[in-house]
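Entry for the shared binder. Reason: the reviewer on the internal report wants the predicted structure included alongside the sequence.
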Amino acid sequence: MVDSQYYLPNDIGVSALECGEAFRLLSPQEKMYAHYLSRAAWYGGLAVLLQTSPESVDIFVLLQKIFRRQAPAELEKVATAAGLSSEDYQAFLVYAAGLYANMGNYKSFGDTKFIPNLPKFKALVWASQAFQEQSTEMEALWNSCSCLLYSLEDRQKQLGLGDKGITTYFSGNCCLEDAEVAQKFLDSKKLSAYNTRLFKKDNGGKVCYEVRLASAVQKDCAVEGECESCCGNYSFEDKEFIVRRGDYAPLMEKVCSYLQQAEVYAANENQKKMIEEYRRSFTLGSIEAHKEGSRYWIKDKGPIVESYIGFIESYRDPFGSRGEFEGFVAVVNKAMSERFAKLVSSAEVLLPELPWPREFEKDKFLKPDFTSLDVLTFAGSGIPAGINIPNYDDIRQSEGFKNVSLGNVLAVAYSTKKEKLTFLEEADKDLFLKWKSPSFEVQVGLHELLGHGSGKLFVEDDKGKFNFDQSKVINPETGELVSSWYRGSETWDSKFSTIASSYEECRAECVGLYLCLNKQVLSIFGHEGQDAMDVVYVNWLSMVRAGLLGLEFYTPESKSWRQAHMQARFVILRVLLEAGEGLVGLEEVTGQDGKPDARITVDRSKIPTVGKDAINSFLRKLQVYKATADVEGGRALYDKYSTVSDSGAHNFLRLRETVLLRKEARKMFVQANTRVNGDNVELVEYEGNAAGLIRSFTERFQDDADQLEADLLQLNRRDAPCWLFELGSLLPPPGY
């Protein structure tokens, strides 16, 4: 019997992202700008299919062909005639919606595979109009993905590197050691891994690695500017490396084409130069060009239409260095943005409150934009609640960054309507319902601005110049002079690799917990007196509960975490439990249904004392290890609290089973499309259900659907042999 965690439930929450009012307030020029940026984002987002699993592209194309010819309502009649029950057909729609929402058949939040919860998938494919019209092509598509569609062999249950899971950031014969030597090579050439994939081959008995850059240009000829000398053959540590361009080339061409059209409607020179550099980046595979575009983006203060695009977050690279493509376009929510602007203005007063010496903070706080946005488009594998970007350490440290809170995402994702309030005491539930969303708004603001936006990295550049006084700065954890730092081209991601993402999320979450105790912060968000105290309590209670819920994202077989944020929250739960003195309670109980359950409690009177002291000490350690590039110390600390075992005061392995028993599926979002009609841009909205989500995707790519699908399949076929190592007999041979 298949574990239910690998199915998406038929009653999964699906909600439309409301952006109609914000869009209608835009000028005609702003609407055109938003439209073409959205098109660029959506086409680039298709690269995520190729970054997720070997079968994702084939499943996507199969579904597109079916739904382009028959909308969900029409296809339902065919399904009934083919012998599917209404529950079976709903399961089919939910699976298809899940594939679109996650841009692949692995959950974007948790990296677990999901499979169709119906046995008659093939019967429906064969009965579809698409099959009647193109039976040979549809049968070939089905044969190429049908085994992997349902397969739950141990390695295929989750994303991972080597024997820990599936990844298409690396060829199937790569392991952690290959990722490490490739990172050393990239560092030696001052190349970023963000827009690369790694393919390991045998060249006459000698190991050869291909580093492939995402670019529209496929030839490795010399071109003007950065990257002209990076492509070619190299020898490094007795291994061969080939750096070449052309990954996702047809998709990058579309991205560049739409960006060029968006540039015509840019509001200012910063936006124009930003887009020019993005185009250069996606044309040549140049991260340096993307960094330059990001600099112009930072300078573009307070735009009405905000956007960002590229290979951004490294959560899903098992090694933690390669970025998943994402692009968003959003409209500023002025009322909410005023609160965040006040928080930015208070940042220089709040930063000294953080528990590390002044030398461990940036020399100067570069006040960023911090806006609340209503999302029009968010292309990629999932939609976050807030963002702090760019992720380039050198820019963040000395030039600045931007923060955004995605208001319409928060309104839907963190709504308490229909939520199962698991693991809470009855006495806490009403308070939790009332303050969950407001408290999370405070946490997101602090997490993004003063979490990700705080803290210095100690660096020695290529010329031997230090950004700190190594003869005076004392490590507060040892009482001795700082003895380690980042050298040359080393970055936070390249040094801390596999734990970097989760560790940094944990640091930012701790900053949020710590500073939400500040009355000035609470006042900025409109909370005073008892209301402010309730917001603090629910914020801490939410974090503790999230730490328990995080166990869903731990895989005992490989002893690995599949989601950076949830690992971070579990770590914080462990820290607060360790603090003792009755601050946090966690006990296993029997539920009213007779099944295992659990209850968490937080003593609100001890949050400002025991709780604050515990976070103070832990947060200081996190920052010190990060600032000093102390990988050994940081990893030992983080691994200690990340451990999930059945020993000690709490049996977390058994609690994990309870969490899985009572888990609730993550919501999916339906996003609108934009369409040019003469001189106007129309917003096309869809119903908030699985059918609406499906329609949004089929209509999104209908203009050049046949060519696009052919391009995707060709890209996937080219690399099919590279996945044979990890998929074994399940993957048909090349040429299928």
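Summary line for the report: The first strand starts at residue 14 and ends at 16.
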